[in-house]
Specification:
Order of helices and strands: EHEHEHEHEHEEHEHHHHH
Number of helices: 11
Number of strands: 8
Distance between the termini: 54 Å
Bound molecules: NADPH dihydro-nicotinamide-adenine-dinucleotide phosphate
Largest sheet: 8 strands, mixed
Number of domains: 2
CATH class of the largest domain: Alpha Beta
CATH superfamily of the largest domain: NAD(P)-binding Rossmann-like Domain
CATH architecture of the largest domain: 3-Layer(aba) Sandwich
Strand content: 5-15%
Length: about 290
């Protein structure tokens, strides 16, 4: 046909934003969701409701999944796996790189292609070229569908390994949730002292604003294994994070997050690194993970 078309499976907040973006750009969109009623609003806007997963697959070569995790994919596709041949499954759900590699293999064994996508955007940013989705998987398949995928967000193709886009995604989400929780922890301490989120905002913004410069400074050092304590020493860091834990306790706020940080600092000191930079802690983390 002359109209571009796509199937979207999964109508959570993210999938719904994706369907809206495709409809807005004039795509013929076939939708399927476990809870069928979530498709209603889109049918009235011109989307096609597939009544079965089989129908959803049959409608288009390109099938986008937006689900809670990769187990949801198996829950949906396992029973129709003989209908997967020739399909391009673009999975925009979150999971671990190993889970993703297994899923790519599972699909390849059923003669389907798999592309991994890690969406670095909130639902309201879908349809906006400035937000980015990380992709990996077969480059020819990615190139063949890039135009359609770029209806959703800009794209950043990381390579053939299906796990790679997910790895890049998860290392950013690692920072995201930890920083967001540290923000909530600091806000709880602030509030316990009568300071509002609004009053805190310029101050928390300021500390986050200084971070990229700090990372730029430490990047070449960390890459070359240089943990020299010429700017700051781990012993100073230990004293400093202790004060954060004490301030939290004085405020009657759960200190488990700064206490976890303190614990890693203590292990660095115990390993004889009091005079090194706090960046030596990456070696401590590496050891405890092994
Ligand atoms: P949701 O967890 O709300 O997505 C739920 C979707 O998965 C629904 O369609 C749900 O169906 C379906 N689902 C879950 N379990 C199953 C199952 N066992 N069988 C069939 N279908 C199942 O997530 P979002 O829409 O918010 O996000 C989708 C993905 O995008 C997630 O991986 C998320 O990490 C990622 N993401 C989300 C962002 C956000 O801000 N929301 C931002 C960036 C990435 P049903 O409706 O029937 O329950």
């Amino acid at each position: 046909g002359s109209r571009s078309s796509v199937t979207v499976i999964g109508l959570g907040p993210m999938g719904r934003a994706m369907v809206s973006a495709f409809l807005k750009r004039g795509y013929e969109v076939t939708v399927w969701n476990r809870t069928s009623s979530k498709a209603d609003e889109f049918v009235s806007k011109g989307a096609i409701r597939a009544s079965t997963v089989n129908e959803a697959l049959a409608s288009n070569e390109l099938v986008i999944l937006s689900l809670t995790d990769y187990d949801s994919m198996y829950a949906i596709l396992e029973s129709v796996s003989e209908k997967l041949s020739g399909k391009v499954i673009v999975n925009l759900s979150s999971d671990s790189p190993e889970k993703v590699r297994e899923a790519a293999k599972w699909l390849n064994e059923r003669r389907a292609w798999h592309l991994t996508g890690g969406v670095l955007a909130s639902p309201s940013e879908i349809g906006n070229k400035e937000s980015i989705t990380l992709y990996s998987g077969p480059s020819a398949i990615f190139e063949a569908h890039r135009k359609t995928l770029e209806v959703l967000t800009g794209t950043d193709y990381k390579g053939e390994d299906p796990g790679l886009a997910m790895l890049y995604y998860q290392i950013q989400i690692d920072v995201f949730w930890t920083v967001m929780l540290s923000y909530l922890h600091a806000l709880a301490v602030a509030r316990a002292n009568g300071i509002t989120a609004k009053q805190f905002l310029p101050y928390v913004s300021e500390i986050l604003f200084t971070m990229p410069k700090l990372l730029e400074f430490y990047t070449p050092r960390v890459d070359s294994g240089m943990y020299h304590g010429d700017v700051e020493k781990l012993a100073m860091g230990l004293a400093s994070i202790k004060h954060v834990v004490h301030t939290s306790k004085e405020a009657g706020v759960d200190a488990s997050l700064p206490a976890a940080v303190l614990d890693v600092f203590k292990r660095g000191i115990a390993s004889g690194h009091a005079d090194d930079s706090f960046t030596i802690l990456i070696e401590i983390l590496k050891m405890s993970g092994a």
